[in-house]
Amino acid sequence: MAEAYIVGAVRTPVGKKKGGLSAVHPTDLAAHTLKALIERTGVDPAAVDDVIMGCVMQFGPQSLDIARNAWLSAGLPESVPGVTIDRQCGSSQQAIHFAAQGVMSGTQDLVVAGGVESMSIVPMGSAVTAALEKGMPFPYGDGWVERYGNQEISQFRGAELMCDKWGFDREELERYAYESHQRAAKAIANGYFKEQIAPIAGVTDDEGPRSDTTLEKMAALKPLREGGRITAATSSQISDGAGAVLIASEAAVKAHGLTPRARVVTLALAGDDPVYMLTAPIPATRKALDRSGLSLDDIDVIEINEAFAPVPLAWMRELDADPAKTNPNGGAIALGHPLGGTGAVLMTKLLHELERVGGRYGLQTMCEGGGQANVTIIERC
């Protein structure tokens, strides 16, 4: 099987809700990363075989195949096609998987993978809300109801169910969230993200981290559910952002004079209980490690999306992962979670952090709607 290499990765700053990126059209947000990726790698854009982008709310301004529209909006060649995919929060990580698989299969040589989400412009759940307002059925049909009943299926309930199962109390969740903010603030202050970010609309840094937050402030917040433990402080932030990654074959690296920065080692997927929804990174990581022959001790940097604090906490407990290696520069609780863009944003962070610390292997995973997860393991070149 052919090797797939990451030769470039770039992202926007992650903007907070109603923040500096809230007025940027999502197509332009994505186009900005595509243009920056081409400029930074120096590749001939006409040589790209496909553009694959993740986007969750493919509705309104994010509809009509935003991958294709963003490429064209960036002024790039009309000859290059684009496709938009939805694996919920893991959409752009799945885009990276599809791009790598195209190269590994030998049918493609240069593929751009990325993702975008403007949650300020297209709020979470927009498509479902609009459908219900028009009297259309809920996405779950008769077969689903027959299997799972009419119980509530939501990420918020799933997060609370995880707290029940693993015994997390509110204080433990808030300590984790506080650490995420502290790590993110330190990374920004030290300039760790500067090289990976393409500033846009006057925004140069991630807007989410709160260096002045305290455990006392977190403890004063009301839970998102009556009697629950999850609050806004222990949840990922509503965000706007995009990222893009260029995947190349060995032949393309030679033909275009590119510099491989990481090799794709393993791609893995798993499904788990859709009611709990957020637990699949655990079996998916086990599958990826088994397939690669690696252990977590071999992994130098880990990025696991902080959809809610119990997600990384349960993952670390089940896999006996090193907290120091896990989200070393903070996660989505502090830095934000622009849904379909997060997978590409995390890969950009993972690659640059591996390079900064001189690590060898990096692992990325995230929970996804429907009780799914992607895991990607890369090796720094």
UniProtKB/TrEMBL annotation:
Alphabetically, the GO molecular function entries are:
acetyl-CoA C-acyltransferase activity
Q: Which family does it belong to?
A: Belongs to the thiolase-like superfamily. Thiolase family.
Q: Where do the Thiolase C-terminal domain residues begin and end?
A: 259-380
Instruction: Kindly give the InterPro entries that the UniProt entry links to this protein.
Output: Thiolase, Thiolase-like, Thiolase_C, Thiolase_CS, Thiolase_N
Q: Write the protein's name.
A: Acetyl-CoA C-acetyltransferase
Keywords of this entry = Acyltransferase, Transferase
UniProt domain Thiolase N-terminal: residue ranges: 5-250
Please tell me whether the keyword Transferase is annotated for this protein: yes
